[in-house]
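seq as requested:
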Amino acid sequence: MLPRLLKVLCLLALPALVLAGCGGVPRLSTFEKGVEYLDYSDYPRAIEQFKEHIKREGEGLAVCYNLGVCYQDMGNLEEAARWYEKALLYDPRDGDSLVNLAMVYQAQGRDMAALARLKQAADIEKDRAYPLVALALHHQKAGQLDKAREYYDQALKREQKSGYAWYHYATLHELDQRYGDAAQAYERAAELDGTNPATFHGAARCYFRLRNWRKAIENYEFAIHLLPSDPGLYIGAADTLTELNRYERAVQFLWAARGLEKADEAAIHDRLLKLYPLLQASEQARK
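struct tokens:
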């Protein structure tokens, strides 16, 4: 998944955006309120504010684009496409609108239209990895892994320090069962952006495949720190600790997983049944 980018208006171009409220305290404009609601994924209120902005100030690239983001995140693809297409009327060379519109077309099954928009964005945005990563993902989803790899390589030539490019490249390596390359790419992504739990989870999966249990548990623990509500992370960590013969700690992770929503009770129960005899035998051996 590509990162969601929001657009903001230039305050110099629209001096009426910030108005004085009671006591001279700045008050957010309707557009700014929309951006704030969108940032918190409150799409109905964001849409309401953006449409109120259009009534007062008229349409433009930023407000049309952000309305497209709202509808895209809500799964209303027709409305998302309509607003992105409107945004492109104001700036036909806006790379973010082109890429997001392509993602909408792809979700609608309009693959040729999606590919055309992505190529257009890549030609326009010659210094950014973002459109090339989108092209790579397009081919990756179609099973054209060699073509996807070409685009990832091009993306990283443009932006060596692009965390999301390294992350998505890692998913391709993992899909292609090149777990060593995948682990290295996930770790590179984590160095550049340490806020994405999926990066650490990916690295943990790959190190587990490589039987590098210590690196696997290290990455599982980082992922859990960032996303403590995901029971799958605790189960993965427990499996890794079992391989390290750390049975007591593995049991603790499984019980933690059991207390979370959407926990896989059957998977946890099966693991606990296997772990308790191992834990008992381990304690007896110590005695």
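The first helix runs from residue 30 to 39.
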